[in-house]
Amino acid sequence: MFQYTVQPGDTLTKIAQAQCNGSITADKIAADNHITNRDLIFVGQVLELDCVGHAAAPVPHQFLFGVDASERVNWQTAKNNGAVFAFSEFFGNNGSRPNIHFSENWDGMKAVNLIRGAYHLILPSVDVTYQANLFVDQVKLAPTDFPPVLDVEARGVTASQLRTWLSIVEAGTHRKPIIYTSQGRWISSSNFGDYPLWVANYGASTPAMPRGWTKWLFWQYQAKTSFDNNYFNGTLDDLNNFVATH
């Protein structure tokens, strides 16, 4: 299996021929992707293609492919599928303590030479100063790692809590954090547009922007069972430059 992003003018028949050299049919692509009407595919849609001899995930030429996960992941498999970068959850889904898989994932990403990052799902019900200090104390970022990521998707988070976490973590790590969110989950009355954006938006040809941003750095375009799929908006040189300067 590999992944293909639908381009303008594509049909399932064209994709089967161009991407799989006719080794599978349009009907099989439709069945594998739960498409009931073969004529209803859209630009930006990501298809799973079970082509003979293909293992990597082709992406639009101006984007780089990467993954993120909150569970235990085989990072070598992610790399074999074309990932250049990866993020692992540090905090959020295990209540008031760090993710039980984080240490293993953190070491695993490094072991296969993925550019790695850690994200923190902020919880409004847990003291935010405690959350921020926990990240600073336990996530040891190398210069080759991404800056910290603040995941803003829990209902009830306030702008004040976001600013507290961001200020403590930026001071403690000397890195300006990235904000992960979506248009529907963002705090619409607040403006944090000076922070790099990692936006979530599935099934779109381009992601919808949360209030305060006009461009995205990362785009989580598909949720998967074991990990989520993402694009970086640029080339490998752009990615390395971002890490080096942020």
Helices, strands, pairings?
Layout: E1 2-5, H1 12-20, H2 26-32, E2 46-49, E3 63-69, H3 75-80, E4 85-91, H4 102-111, E5 115-121, H5 128-138, E6 149-151, H6 159-173, E7 178-181, E8 197-200, E9 218-222, E10 228-233, H7 236-245
Parallel strand pairs: 3-4, 4-5, 5-6, 6-7, 7-8, 8-9
Antiparallel strand pairs: 1-2, 3-10, 9-10
Question: Can you walk through the features of this model?
Answer:
The protein is of the alpha/beta class. It has two domains: 48 residues, Roll (Membrane-bound Lytic Murein Transglycosylase D, Chain A); 183 residues, Glycosidases (TIM Barrel). The protein has seven helices and ten strands. The strands form two sheets. An eight-stranded mixed β-barrel has the order 3-4-5-6-7-8-9-10. A two-stranded antiparallel ribbon has the order 1-2.
Helicity range of the residues?
25-40%
Query: Which range does the strand content fall in?
Result: 15-25%
CATH architecture of the largest domain: Alpha-Beta Barrel
For this structure, the CATH topology of the largest domain is TIM Barrel
Counting DSSP E segments of at least 2 residues, the number of strands comes to: 10
Please indicate the count of domains: 2
The tally of helices reads 7
| Terminal Cα span | 35 Å
What's the SSE pattern? EHHEEHEHEHEHEEEEH
